[in-house]
């Protein structure tokens, strides 16, 4: 059973505990006023409008169930599987020391950006590095090494960001939402969108019942009904909020972006894009060759292994080498934009059942592809052309397997 991941902030932990009770209370009031007071007592018993009441009740409970299912799925996903980047394997003592340091820093300074910066691990064999260069494209810094999280002291996978709420890096982090109990990220964004969408529709049904009853009272010359008025006001407030959230989320899905990406979209994205090992040096882009050797690599070098300086490189090691061009996008270019249809499918799933029901995690949660962490769009080919970086001539998986095996063999013999 996975352990729940709670926020490191006391006030957020309290909000996460109190808000579900608040939601239950609101739903209790809604059900009492809409079902008992307006539909049964007024429209059915007083007005004898059984057809209208049946239609209202079917819609009410349909969207209630869909909303509750999406809410529970989102809530438990944010608690049990918020998409945290696993910490690198460390010795027990080292891990405890790192954890202590992380907590101390977090206490001292809540703002990650301002806390003391720990430089990236200079070790060429740094744990976790291989997971990046065994793919064909990954997000990197200008020196060609992956991004580094100073707080977690580990390399950050593509599209992951450090959450100061959870004190950990989160994959495709979107935002921390106390309404659904925690971090909305790649594991829960589809469920969260369904929740907002169904809550919007649920509010629309409530509004319809409230407005219909209100009009009936007016037509009959009765005094204004307090319950109908309260339902209209509550449905408008919650409906506007959740429908707005649903529309924003749907827009983000079609654009394959997140709240965090939107904040940074004027920044360029630097990518390490694999090129053939035989590619001659170019003045248009720096390159980096993995596995790294000796001291940290400096950008702008020709990418040839510094064999004369740091010992001879064996023929087998050379075969296992992978060369990457360090390419920069323009501001607002999104390397993960696959087109509207594929963007939607990568988050909401392949078929309409998955789009409508909170049953499966997004396909983009699967990071097994050897091409990149997240499926890349046509921008990568355009970038290669823009910089004159050649395509890989043999994209065969068998060649790849030989390389990996080779490197593993080398490591085992180290
Ligand atoms: Zn982190």
UniProtKB/TrEMBL annotation:
Q: Which reaction does it catalyse?
A: L-cysteinyl-[protein] + hexadecanoyl-CoA = S-hexadecanoyl-L-cysteinyl-[protein] + CoA
Top-level taxon in the UniProt lineage: Eukaryota
Q: What is its EC number?
A: 2.3.1.225
**Statement: the UniProt record of this protein carries the keyword Transferase:** yes
Report domain Palmitoyltransferase DHHC positions: 145-264
State its location(s): Membrane
Question: Polar residues compositional bias: what residue ranges?
Answer: 304-316
Q: Which enzyme type, at the first EC level?
A: transferase
Q: Which InterPro entries match?
A: Palmitoyltrfase_DHHC, PFA4/ZDH16/20/ERF2-like
Q: What is this protein called?
A: Palmitoyltransferase
Any single GO CC term annotated in Swiss-Prot or TrEMBL for this entry: Golgi apparatus
Q: Which GO terms describe its biological process?
A: protein targeting to membrane
Domain statement: The DHHC domain is required for palmitoyltransferase activity.
Please give the family membership noted in the entry.
Answer: Belongs to the DHHC palmitoyltransferase family. PFA5 subfamily.
Q: Where is the composition biased (Basic and acidic residues)?
A: 91-100, 403-414
One MF term in the entry's GO annotations: protein-cysteine S-palmitoyltransferase activity
Primary localization: membrane
Q: Which UniProt keywords apply?
A: Acyltransferase, Lipoprotein, Membrane, Palmitate, Transferase, Transmembrane, Transmembrane helix
What residues form the membrane-spanning segments?
21-44, 50-72, 195-214, 226-254
Question: Quick one: where's region Disordered?
Answer: 86-126, 296-316, 390-414
- Membrane topology designation: Multi-pass membrane protein
